[in-house]
């Protein structure tokens, strides 16, 4: 692997040089193991420790099949789906791999006694499989995490509607938290040239998801002046939602849980901030939702906005907050949800939905077009990575635990083949122009 890393960092390396490098027969990846899926049985979700279930293993290198590419991964990032995989909740991910493999053909390779996790990468194409025209060895890339087959007509208006839609590195094997990764070539996008490897990998999954939720015609289509309530505004999704909202000329109303996180969203330009911990919001009394708390929360939002309600609510905490989200959305407003971190059996008062003509939109990742548009904003330095911490691959369990325990802000990066932080910038002039903003958004700063 050292030859590979050296060659990648030689500025004059040609595609032929990269194509001429030997691909190792095995590589190191962060895996969960099929024979450990019961290890947390009976353990509460909050106490399941990814440091126990995530292992570094040497695994066999898959050959790229038709339409696939093998990528040397310089850096990856932690997404919440890696938390779910590593705590085997709500399901272990081996069932996804078995179902995918049942398609036969090259999909059969994905059913293994280990699952290499990870749904983001920044790296260099090493090999392109048969039929790949757009990408070649040596290309510096990031990968989005949508894997589709597109054999059914259903996916052809919006690829997220493909019945064989999967999230790479969660519902497929050979993910990005590794030295090598196998992707479909239609997951690849150009690496933002002004960013380091670890900065370039931070945004993919969450930025694309927030883009579909807020900006795309498949989501809420925010516009100038909209009030956008953003739960977890200093987290992965939230820190990109704040930027997209501001770019649209809309007004973020940021919910966070500490003064440090409030400071972070203010540094990103948000003016309206609610510290939910300081306010002590408790939307449930035991097993029952507490509408008095919804009203108190709504009144707080009106205090901040001068009497207005949110046009759009970016939802993902789920059970804890969903009732409040439906309540506070304005008449005719939209709640757009992509997750249920605190529980997926939501309760809300439907009278506030139907009588006030509100809409709930279910949203999931993004199609290639949306992911490409979201990545374009990064490449043009119109949205910045919100990387707060970077761990070596050997400490991936600690990195995932930090996200699980909600101790992080923004995004947590992982160095894979990159020997240190700060490498991979190929457009220093663009970087110099945006250095101050990039540093401001590097949330540890
Ligand atoms: P993250 O970085 O951990 O951020 C989540 C934020 O949620 C935290 O910063 C936290 O902010 C807030 N939060 C946690 N518990 C809360 C509660 N009880 N009430 C209110 N806010 C709470 O995670 P993420 O990457 O943004 O992902 C968030 C969720 O979206 C996860 O469940 C993830 O799996 C899901 N997701 C889904 C998709 C998709 O395609 N469907 C894509 C990306 C993510 P404060 O503590 O500061 O309030």
CATH topology of the largest domain: Quinone Oxidoreductase, Chain A, domain 1
CATH architecture classification of the largest domain: Alpha-Beta Complex
What is the CATH class of the largest domain?
Alpha Beta
Helix content: 25-40%
Q: Count every beta strand, where a strand is a DSSP E run of 2 or more residues.
A: 20
Arithmetic mean pLDDT = 96
Largest β-sheet summary: 7 strands, mixed
Q: Which kinds of small molecule does this entry bind, naming each only once? A: NADP nicotinamide-adenine-dinucleotide phosphate
Task: Note poorly predicted spans.
Answer: none
CATH superfamily of the largest domain: Medium-chain alcohol dehydrogenases, catalytic domain
SS summary, helix count: 16
How are the SSEs ordered, and which strands pair?
Layout: H1 2-8, H2 15-19, E1 26-33, H3 50-53, E2 55-60, E3 68-78, H4 80-86, H5 94-101, E4 114-116, E5 121-128, E6 140-143, E7 146-147, E8 166-167, E9 180-184, E10 188-190, H6 197-202, H7 204-214, E11 227-230, H8 236-247, E12 251-256, H9 259-267, E13 272-275, H10 276-279, E14 284-285, E15 288-289, H11 291-305, E16 312-315, H12 322-328, E17 334-337, H13 350-354, E18 359-362, H14 368-379, E19 387-392, H15 396-404, E20 411-415, H16 428-441
Parallel strand pairs: 11-12, 11-16, 12-13, 16-17, 17-18, 19-20
Antiparallel strand pairs: 1-2, 1-4, 3-5, 3-9, 3-20, 5-6, 6-10, 7-8, 14-15
The structure holds NADP nicotinamide-adenine-dinucleotide phosphate (NAP).
């Amino acid at each position: 692997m050292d030859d590979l890393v050296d060659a990648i960092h030689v500025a004059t390396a040609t595609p032929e040089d990269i194509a001429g490098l030997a691909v190792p027969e095995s590589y190191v990846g962060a895996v969960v193991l099929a024979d450990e899926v019961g290890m947390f049985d009976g353990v509460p979700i909050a106490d399941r420790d990814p440091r126990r279930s995530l292992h570094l293993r040497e695994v066999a290198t898959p050959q790229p099949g038709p339409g696939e590419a093998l990528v040397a991964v310089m850096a990856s990032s932690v997404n919440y789906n890696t938390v779910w995989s590593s705590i085997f909740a709500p399901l272990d991910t081996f069932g996804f791999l078995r179902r995918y493999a049942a398609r036969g053909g090259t999909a059969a390779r994905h059913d293994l006694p280990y699952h290499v996790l990870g749904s983001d990468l920044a790296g260099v194409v090493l090999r392109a499989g048969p039929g790949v025209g757009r990408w070649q060895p040596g290309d510096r890339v990031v990968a989005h995490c949508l894997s589709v087959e597109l054999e059914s007509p259903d996916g052809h208006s919006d690829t997220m509607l493909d019945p064989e839609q999967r999230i790479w590195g969660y519902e497929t094997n050979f993910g990005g938290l590794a030295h090598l990764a196998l992707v479909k070539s239609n997951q690849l996008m150009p690496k933002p040239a002004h960013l380091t490897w670890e900065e370039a990998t931070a945004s993919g999954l969450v930025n694309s998801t927030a883009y579909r939720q807020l900006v795309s015609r498949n989501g809420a289509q925010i516009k100038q002046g909209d009030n956008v309530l953003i739960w977890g505004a200093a987290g992965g999704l939230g820190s990109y939602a704040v930027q997209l909202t501001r770019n649209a000329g809309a007004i973020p109303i940021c919910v966070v849980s500490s003064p440090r996180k409030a400071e972070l969203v203010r540094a990103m330009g948000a003016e309206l901030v609610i510290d939910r911990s300081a306010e002590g919001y408790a939307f449930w009394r035991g097993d029952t939702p507490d509408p008095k708390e919804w009203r108190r929360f709504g009144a707080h939002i009106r205090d901040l906005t001068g009497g207005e309600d949110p046009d759009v609510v970016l939802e993902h905490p789920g059970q804890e907050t969903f009732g409040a989200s439906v309540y506070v959305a304005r008449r005719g407003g939209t709640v757009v949800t992509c997750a249920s971190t605190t529980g997926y059996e939501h309760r809300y008062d439907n009278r506030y939905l139907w009588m006030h003509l509100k809409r709930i939109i279910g949203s999931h990742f993004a199609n290639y077009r949306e992911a490409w548009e979201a990545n374009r904003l990064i490449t043009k330095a119109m949205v910045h990575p919100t990387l707060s911490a970077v761990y070596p691959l050997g400490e991936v369990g600690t990195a995932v635990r930090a996200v699980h325990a909600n101790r992080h802000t923004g995004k947590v990066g992982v160095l894979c083949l990159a020997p240190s932080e700060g490498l991979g910038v190929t457009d220093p002039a663009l970087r110099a122009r945006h250095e101050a903003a990039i540093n401001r958004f590097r949330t540890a700063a």
